[in-house]
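Structural prep section.
Before we set up the soaks we want a predicted structure of the protein with flavin-adenine dinucleotide in place, mainly to decide which crystallisation condition to try first. Input record follows.
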Amino acid sequence: MLKKPKPVPCILTVKDVFSLSPHMVRVVFTAPELESRPLGCEGANCKIFIPNKKQNPEDLIEQILNGPRPTVRTYTVRNFRKDVLELDIDFVIHSNGGPASNFAMNAKPGDFLGFRGPSDVKIKDYYADWYLLAADMSAIPVVAATLEKLPRNAMGMAIIEVQSEDDIQNIDAPMGINMNWLIHSNPHKQSRAQEAMIRAKKFPEGIIQTCIAGESGVIKSLRKFFKDETQIPNDDIYISGYWKIGLIEDEHQAQKRLEK
Ligand SMILES: Cc1cc2nc3c(=O)[nH]c(=O)nc-3n(C[C@H](O)[C@H](O)[C@H](O)COP(=O)(O)OP(=O)(O)OC[C@H]3O[C@@H](n4cnc5c(N)ncnc54)[C@H](O)[C@@H]3O)c2cc1C
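Run finished without errors. Recording the tokens verbatim:
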């Protein structure tokens, strides 16, 4: 099958910044090029390229296209308002302060970064009898966007782990989704609570689809559980490690490639 061409990179300019909760910042970006991005891309991932201090937008685009590779990170389109050319990305503000987290923490209107994407959305069709969603804070954007897109009569369970009670968000989930918020105050210590809750659940009969993402150690263990202990076909499972304790994104991505 022919590989889809990579979308052309563009510059996104910061239009607004909101603190959503103690550990999450929403940055509202704008760009004329958003006109060409597809409606309904909420939940799809994208690449952001962080400029260095002295760089102007033209230099950054030149560097994205022709190298050397700038600092690149993977994020999720949380909201897209094509009519007003606005795209929101929600950033976890984490204590280890990587370049992306720092960018968001200090962002102000007029700042810019490079953008490539969005990719395809993670779940294209919703046909399950029961949905299982799980996230840590880095995956709230994909799980929240998925919950908002689910058929309004969908049934299932969502387990979302946040660092404090004040990090709990309002999500427009279908009434039939049982929402569970867990508190895990130290993200640098691997959590066992989501897996324990998933294991304790007796899955109903019928088709199950999942949307699960978060810290790679947690995800690795859950992936093994689905493979060894459930009959859910691979095509119905979206599960992905979004970051890894102790590794910056480039190291984590390199490790994921080795494990494939
Ligand atoms: C498909 C995909 C979609 C993603 N979408 C989002 C999103 O919408 N919002 C979001 O916030 N993240 C998202 N992530 C995760 C994000 O890419 C990583 O958290 C990334 O490492 C952040 O970059 P950084 O520059 O802030 O930190 P890095 O320079 O990569 O890492 C610096 C240090 O911070 C630690 N660290 C990284 N992320 C976290 C974290 N979440 N909590 C605690 N410590 C951390 C690392 O282990 C490392 O020690 C997504 C990842 C993938 C693969």
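Observations: The chain has a mean pLDDT of 96.
Flagged for discussion at group meeting.
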